[in-house]
């Protein structure tokens, strides 16, 4: 399989100018479904499987799951900042360095599966409460000075959810782990 396909199994994220209410609802449903999809896929795996990289020179499944927990906790916080401050500048983090920390390389996957489960319960509750004015609120990402509308951020994290789920799912399929 080609490296680009292994890196981006559902393609790269392409933001749109605007999102319909139906698209936003679908994207929230994708975010909502991630915890159970991960738990159903990974629940019976052993450490050898968790410690397998999903692609050459890529993270292990363990690092991947911990990354999703880290990323989605940050996303939830960014939403709360955007909803309570006027176009705040968010705090970025180096996800590659976070993935190399001992907890990301060694901690049980179950810890982050539970974090994902509970952060998504809170996050989806918040997302489902947003009105049009809330969805138009923004934050600034200092890495590129981009202004990010919350409706587009929802789409990005729906993509991010499925993107990383597919990393693990396709690894399992390639290795006949199901």
Describe this structure in words.
The chain has 178 residues and is mainly alpha-helical. The chain has one domain (21-173): Up-down Bundle (Four Helix Bundle (Hemerythrin (Met), subunit A)), CATH 1.20.120. It is 63% helix and 4% strand. It has 9 helices and 2 strands; from the N terminus they run H-H-H-H-H-H-H-H-E-E-H. Strands 1-2 form a two-stranded antiparallel ribbon. Helix 4 (61-84) runs antiparallel to helix 9 (150-174). The longest helix has 25 residues, at 150-174. The protein is globular. The model has no long low-confidence stretch (mean pLDDT 97).
Percentage of residues in helical conformation: 55-70%
Count of discrete alpha- or pi-helical segments spanning 4 or more residues: 9
- The tally of strands reads 2
Strand content: under 5%
Identify the CATH architecture.
Up-down Bundle
The total tally of domains equals 1
Which CATH top level class fits? Mainly Alpha
The main β sheet shows up as: 2 strands, antiparallel
Q: Roughly what is the average pLDDT, rounded to an integer?
A: 97
Unreliable stretches covering 5 or more consecutive residues: none
Query: H/E series, N to C?
Result: HHHHHHHHEEH
Based on CA inertia axes, which overall geometry fits?
A: globular
Domain DinB-like: 35-167
Protein name: DinB superfamily protein
Pfam family, one: DinB_2
């Amino acid at each position: 399989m080609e490296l680009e396909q292994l890196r981006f199994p559902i393609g790269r994220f392409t933001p749109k100018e605007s999102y319909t209410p139906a698209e936003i609802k679908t994207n929230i449903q994708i975010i909502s479904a991630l915890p159970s999809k991960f738990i159903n896929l990974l629940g019976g795996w052993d450490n050898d499987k968790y410690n397998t990289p999903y692609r050459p020179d890529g993270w292990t499944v363990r690092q991947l799951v911990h990354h999703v927990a880290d990323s989605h906790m940050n996303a939830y916080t960014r939403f709360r900042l955007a909803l309570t401050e006027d176009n705040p500048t968010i705090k970025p983090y180096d996800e590659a360095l976070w993935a190399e920390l001992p907890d990301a390389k060694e901690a049980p996957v179950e810890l982050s599966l539970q974090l994902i489960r509970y952060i998504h319960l809170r996050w989806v509750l918040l997302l489902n409460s947003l009105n049009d004015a809330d969805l138009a609120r923004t934050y600034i990402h200092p890495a590129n000075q981009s202004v990010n509308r919350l409706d587009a951020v929802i789409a990005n994290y729906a993509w991010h959810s499925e993107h990383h789920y597919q990393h693990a799912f396709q690894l399992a399929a390639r290795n006949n782990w199901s």
